[in-house]
Amino acid sequence: MGRLVVISNRVAVPKARGAAGAQGGLAGALNSALKKHKGLWFGWSGQESEAETGESTGNINMQRADGVTTATIDLSARDVDEYYNGYANSTLWPLFHYRLDLTEYERETGKGYERVNERFAECVQPLIEEEDLVWVHDYHLLPLGERLRARGLKNRIGFFLHIPWPPTRLFVSLPFHERLVRTMLDYDLVGFQNNEWLESFLHYCRKELGAQVDEDTGVVSFEGRTVRAKAYPIGIDWDHFQAQGKTETAHKAAERLTDSIRNRAAMIGVDRLDYSKGLPERIDGIGRFFDQHPERVRDLVYIQVAPPSREDVESYQHIREVLEQKTGQINGARSEVDLVPIRYVNRGYEHAELYGFFNAAKIGLVTPLRDGMNLVAKEYVAAQDPEDPGVLILSRFAGAAQQLSCDEKGAVMVNPHSPDDLSHAILAALDMPLAERKSRYEAMITTIREDNVQAWTAEFCSDLAGE
Ligand code: ADQ
Questions:
Q1: Is the distance from the beta carbon of residue 279 to the nearest atom of ligand 1 less than 6 Å?
Q2: Interatomic CA distance for residues 416 and 419, integer angstroms
Q3: Which of 35, 306, 377, 436 is deepest in the core (most CB within 10 A)?
């Protein structure tokens, strides 16, 4: 196998790992694979250039660190507006998270999306060598494979979608949906987080495209092209995360949290501030718990860590306001001079600090309305003391639910739309005896440790290479 070439919207150099991890799941996941295969990582720098799109295609910023070459380009203000804030984050993101109510359909942003994909292809193609494996990531770049093929690229090209694939009935609301999916057939391999999203994709190919689909192998054949689709549930970087847990920073963070809550139990949620994460619904569930069990207000402190993201998109400004209002209402009604039931922290933390907070928290609350996987759920469990583990409360709509719920074991499963369900789960977690906490922890920990990000990249790359 030649080098690995990763192409994603943003690029994070290995040194900046902590910071990148705080912004999203992709960065941490890819560094180890790139280091191993002396890889190249191509994407947008995050910077806006003065030039209009297409004017500065020669401007690629190349850097080398830790054996990994990064190559980035700037985008024009219009590109950022149409491709990133527009089509990717105001059309595809809400639609793929089943939020038709928030999905915007603008022809101009669709054109910007295609234009930037074309620009990516134009810039990255000369950097790709004959034997390289090319791995494209996420919803920003769905049509990139087709754009690269149009430039004559013959390499094996794979694509992985980090977010859900919506059911056909929702997906067809996207104008030009067929055009978008046809572009995906130029990949050799298309990966999804779990079987549910995979099945939705295969269903679309069969029903709407009229493609031939082999359900057993995931091979889709259409107009002379074949692509294989398969589920690859992403995992955490287990070794790295455990190493973080042994640092002074992690110990201090755990101590700081424990000292500040005195004898109460800490319940923690760590999410990007995004409507898919179910944050207002979660606060409603906590409010319901306090309403139903006022005598327990002194037993529990909820800590919500939620750094703002995508602040240029209107729906993200709205979610922030809603959350502040709901948190304020509960704290106003339930606080005492020596007690504030909800701590709402609008910032991110390093992984070592998060490890410490997770370790000190008796309950981890992960309740997205829809999520491709959700690595926070796995990190929370990975940070627990095996002899005295905390309880994970997990939404049935997170991709992680397929791995972390097994009969009555594993995570305590909830419907995040139901405040009563959440309230009930919080009570159960708070009072759960040690033996049950241990058996639930044991039901989850093996898959979290073994199906880690190294295993994930190895499996995807080996399938892509056809090994
Ligand atoms: P995200 O939606 O960004 O990623 P998630 O998997 O929840 O989601 O988190 C990714 C990483 O960001 C984790 O390592 C986590 O620790 C970190 N993180 C999240 N919130 C943080 C905070 N408040 N402070 C510091 N760090 C924080 C997308 C998909 C997910 C999928 C990942 C990986 O939406 O479903 O799991 O990609 O494929």
A1: no
A2: 7
A3: 377
Domain 4-235+453-465: assigned CATH number: 3.40.50.2000
Close Cβ partners of 193 (under 8 Å, ≥ 6 residues apart): 161, 162, 163, 164, 231, 232, 233, 234, 372, 373, 399
Please report the atom of ligand 1 found closest to the CA of residue 22: 26
Q: Ligand 1 within 6 A of 278 CB?
A: no
CATH of 238-450, one of 3.30.2010.30, 3.30.379.10, 1.10.3720.10, 3.40.50.2000: 3.40.50.2000
Q: Which atom of ligand 1 lies at the shortest distance from residue 23's CA?
A: 12
Active site residues: 162, 371
* pTM attached to this predicted model: 0.95
pLDDT tens digit at each of 467 positions of the chain? 689 999 999 987 655 434 333 333 456 667 777 887 889 999 999 999 877 655 555 589 999 887 889 999 999 999 999 999 999 999 999 999 999 999 999 999 999 999 999 999 999 999 999 999 999 999 999 999 999 999 999 999 999 999 999 999 999 999 999 999 999 999 999 999 999 999 999 999 999 999 999 999 999 999 999 999 999 999 998 998 999 999 999 999 999 999 999 889 999 999 999 999 999 999 999 999 999 999 999 999 999 999 888 888 888 888 888 999 999 999 999 999 999 999 999 888 999 999 999 999 999 999 999 999 999 999 999 999 999 999 999 999 999 999 998 777 899 999 999 999 999 999 999 999 999 999 999 999 999 999 998 899 999 999 999 97
Is residue 162 within 6 Å of ligand 1 at its C-beta?
Answer: yes
Q: For 329, which DSSP code? A: H
**Could you tell me if the CB of 137 is within 6 A of ligand 1?**
no
| Å from CA of 149 to ligand 1 middle | 31
